[in-house]
Amino acid sequence: MTDIAFYFKPVHGMDPPVAPNTVYKRLGEVITIYSDVSHFPSLAGLDIAIIGVDDDRNSVNNKGCGMAADAVRDYLYRLYPGNYTIKIADLGNIERGNEPEDTFFALSAVIEKLQESGIIPLIIGGGQELTYAVYKAYKNRDQIINIAAIDNMFDLGETERQLNSRSYLSHIILHKPNFLFNYTNIGYQTYLVDQGAIDLMRDLFFDVYRLGVARSNMTEIEPLVRNADMLTFDISAIRQTDAPGNGNATPNGFYGEEACQITRYAGMSDKLTCIGFYEMNPAFDRNGQTAHLLAQMIWYFIDGFYHRQHDHPANDAEGFIRYNVQLINHEEGIVFYKSKKTDRWWMEVKCAENIREKYRRHYLVPCSYNDYQTSCDNEIPDRWWQAYQKLM
Predict the structure, then answer these.
(1) Mind listing the pLDDT tens digit for each residue in 103-162?
(2) In what helix (H) or strand (E) does residue 184 lie, and over which residues does it extend?
(3) C-alpha span between 94 and 107 (Å, rounded)
(4) What average pLDDT does range 86-113 have in this prediction?
(5) Which of 285, 240, 385 has its CA nearest to residue 327?
């Protein structure tokens, strides 16, 4: 039994549905499920590990979100996988600690162990403050990382207050040592965010995109997600009619199919090594609608993962077309790379030789064809400037 097994309790009272056609099995039949306390799943050969967290003590106005994982499993297990071999285990639910800090410690330890084994943790349930525990799991990897958050606000809170779902980002920013290179918020709603918070995001050269901007061209979201090491998804970012199962749901937000599109982008990203879905609350749900949607979002993540193309300019120079765009008043120009395999784009940001190794994962920035067009029109893309400011 692996050394993280004692953090978990098995999935009980949930028999995986059997497909009527024995040739094509459902996810509940092909995922290895921790249902017997004496048989914790082996981590050998796994691609993805599903983790439930039933701790909602620090979730603001959303008590009950700790019950999300089992509600989602009920729908997830019924779905059929795509045409690929599934190597996924459901490790059960992390036991709630005596204090929230105990749960954070357990989650960090589990994430770190899984990542050491090359396994992507997929977290379901609990408050979004668990993002901080996930962030701390990266501290021993000797990497500077990027976080993408799908959220209708920034969750900066007041730093002197206890860590909770509305303040976790401040704790990440102030954590010492700090290994956060970039934070990207996708889908914030301006009337839910004070101007001081927006100004702070700009001062830190973080990428923040209003809901309307994000929804106006969803393909522009793909490079933002592709640039993240970890993605944290607050269910309140989805409109209430599509996802009522949240104590802080609002009338506006992403549509369900847009949320699925985002999670598929995340699955396809070779860089992403952890994803978490938080704040889904069965107590507010209607006929399992939100649990069903979240199960489909997870399905799209899995589908994206098994369609990863493993293309990156630093690893396969022959697989890319290089474009050197010269700009007036910018003597070095900007170098773009286009994948021959996927048509995805990257751009190279100037980085001093003495810090090039430290930031080797960050000076090649995922971008879009629109960024290339912008530079061809003699304008420097915003993505380029944001990264350049942090690399100066």
Answers:
(1) 999 999 999 999 999 999 999 999 999 999 999 999 888 889 999 999 999 999 875 568
(2) strand 180-188
(3) 7
(4) 96
(5) 385
For 319-359, give the DSSP string.
GEEEEEEEETTEEEEEEEEEETTT--EEEEPP--HHHHTTT
Please indicate whether residue 10 or residue 316 has the higher confidence score (pLDDT).
Answer: 10
Q: How far apart are CA 197 and CA 309, in angstroms?
A: 37
- pLDDT tens digits for 280-296? 999 999 999 999 999 99
Token representation of residue 42 = 């082996």
Position 331 pLDDT exceeds 90? no
Structural domains for the chain: 5-305 (3.40.800.10), 317-391 (no CATH)
pLDDT at 159: 56
CB contact at 8 A, 347 and 369: no
CB-neighbour burial class of residue 310 (10 A; exposed 0-12, middle 13-18, buried 19+): exposed
Residue with tokens 């900066």: 156
pLDDT of res. 1: 44
Enter the pTM of the model.
Answer: 0.95
How big is the chain, counted in residues?
392
Q: Is 288 exposed, middle or buried (0-12, 13-18, 19+ CB in 10 A)?
A: middle
C-alpha pair distances (Å), 342 with each of 262, 322, 368, 392: 17, 14, 12, 31
First-last CA distance in the chain: 48
Q: In terms of DSSP H, where are the helices of 181-233? A: 195-203, 211-216, 221-226
What pLDDT was estimated at residue 133?
96
pLDDT digits (tens, 9 = 90+) for 333-380: 899 999 999 999 999 998 888 888 888 889 999 999 999 999 999 999
Q: What is the DSSP letter of 145?
A: E
CA distance 104 to 164: 12
Kindly report the CA angle at 137 between 275 and 196, in degrees rounded to 5?
Answer: 70
The answer to whether residues 233 and 150 touch, using CB atoms and an 8 Å cutoff, is: yes
Strands 345-348 and 330-339: antiparallel
